[in-house]
Amino acid sequence: MPSPRDDCLFCSIAREGAYVNKTKGFVAIHDINPKAKVHVLVIPERHVDTFREVGEFSAKETKRMLEFVAETAREVGLNDYRVLVNVGRSAGQTIYHLHWHLLGGDASGEDIPAGVATAEAEL
Ligand code: 5GP
Ligand code: ZN
Prior knowledge:
Layout: H1 9-16, E1 21-23, E2 26-30, E3 38-44, H2 59-75, E4 81-84, E5 100-104, H3 114-121
Antiparallel strand pairs: 1-2, 2-3, 3-5, 4-5
The structure holds guanosine-5'-monophosphate (5GP) and zinc ion (ZN).
The site of guanosine-5'-monophosphate has 12 residues, from strand 2.
């Protein structure tokens, strides 16, 4: 596995953070500035700048990473939620170490895009 980057915040957090959940190679933490009632970040220990390089993970690691995202959602009590990855600056990425946002816990459903809500209402 490539060594952690000393100048990378999420490499440090993956090594010594206050985890919500942890498995071999991956950790989950609460987002410091939550954009939903529950906002958790899933972070691989392996440093990969963005989702574009997701192919650097083996098939086995990729499977475990996705299963860990779902397992973490369950662990923090989320049944309905969004999984989001910002890829690149103009898409909102601010930390260049791959991470998955888990957003949920807002019972009102206000997060559901209007288009989706309208389409359902017309059925
Ligand atoms: P991005 O904008 O790159 O998709 O997501 C970065 C996320 O990391 C943001 O939601 C931001 O609030 C969160 N974040 C930034 N610095 C820290 C930190 O030091 N600790 C934690 N727990 N989250 C952080
Ligand atoms: Zn890193």
